[in-house]
Amino acid sequence: MNVKDMLINLLNVYSPSGDEHEIAKLIKEYMIDLDFEDPVIDDKLNVISVNGKNKPSVFLCGHEDTVPGFLNVKTDNDLIYGRGAVDAKSSLLSLMLGANKVIKNGFNGKLLISAASGEESDSKGIYNILNNYDKYDYAIFGEPGGPENITAGYKGRLLLKIEKKSESHHASSSWMEENAIDSLIALWQKIRSKYGYNKDFNSVTAGITKFNGGEYDNKTPENALMYIDLRYPKSVNEDDLVNEIKLYINDILKDNYSYNIENRTEPYISDLKSDLVLSFKDAIAKNNMKPKLIFKSGSGDMNTLGNKWKIPVITYGPGDTKLSHTNSEVININEIYKCTNIISDSLISISNKYR
Q1: Which of 76, 149, 279, 287 is most exposed, with minimal Cβ within 10 Å?
Q2: Which of 265, 293, 322 is the last residue of a domain?
Q3: What is the pLDDT, as a whole number, of residue 54?
């Protein structure tokens, strides 16, 4: 089967977080076809194959899930459209093909190739891997960035759930009592004015991702809730940021409120002088492109594993990251070929350092 057909088949399996059963079966079939050793689907629906046993040991991890929202799969010459075309089934495929190529070329180390579940939600896949496998020497995660770009850092994440209660009253007398929705809007405006318009990697950013409140169109709400997604760089102390948000909450909501940190992920910055980064730089240059280190405002499984294992980690893969989570996901198949070659060349370079 050619690469284009492999990707189209992956995209045709709708696999939002929590619904990875069918995509896991297909990926296992691909791993068998690529002659990876004893691929298994674990109890969290990760697909895993461990190949070889010498040094260096390299962990290769893409993710099999996507954000919700089905998109029709279509092609236009070298362009392929569909949910996951960018984030991140193309990157997963590049990792698998790169591993297959380097094994055929005599890679002497150990490769753990994995398709992780839950990356777009609770990261259940990567946590299960961390709980069941010993530390590797290096790790490469598959996410979009483009063939010439090495993602060397991600921000941390705090997901806050904030709820406010108030007395209800007739909508015609909205001046009588506090309104839970009004209060949460005022809080969000305060947070947005401080963080909502920041673009720089070294600043805190904030986005409102959910807002619910009210039951009837002629009655003010008794409660309302919202989710605020905060992303913060390594230079910002998490406790200081949380305490600042607490001050805003207490000042504006005053009473009858609750808040909870639903998700927290520490920021991660790669060792920019590691053999891993240098090998990718050399491989990109060898393939007639100018390598560039990039730092993303998002966060991912790289953060979780990098902070736990304390090893050199990068993220790499084809596609325009600005199309992630949009209804316009499209990939040029030629980027997958380029990334496959660069991954293979990089692994050979790393392996040569251990000879």
Answers
A1: 76
A2: 265
A3: 92
φ, ψ for residue 176, nearest 5 deg = -75, -45
Among 200, 234, 265, give the residue marking a domain's end: 265
**0.90 surpassed by pTM:** yes
The pLDDT tens digits of the residues spanning 135-174 come to: 999 999 999 999 999 999 999 999 999 999 988 875 666 6
Helix (H) or strand (E) run with residue 166 in it: none
* Residues 128, 18 share a domain: yes
At 320, list the tokens: 């325009």
Q: Which H/E stretch holds residue 136?
A: none
Task: Please give the residue range of the domain that contains residue 221.
Answer: 163-265
CATH classification of the domain holding 249? 3.30.70.360
Peptide bond into 56 cis (omega under 30): yes
- Asked if 296 and 222 sit in the same domain, the reply is no
Answer yes or no: do 237 and 142 share one domain: no
Residue type, 31: M
* pLDDT, tens digit (0-9, with 9 covering 90-100), for 188-244: 999 999 999 998 999 999 999 999 998 888 888 889 999 999 999 999 999 999 999
Instruction: Name every residue whose Cβ is closer than 8 Å to that of residue 118 and which is 6 or more positions away in sequence.
Output: 17, 18, 20, 44, 63, 65, 124, 125, 126
Number of domains in the chain: 2
Distance CA 138, CA 336 (A): 22
Three-class DSSP category at 56? coil
Length of the chain counted residue by residue: 355
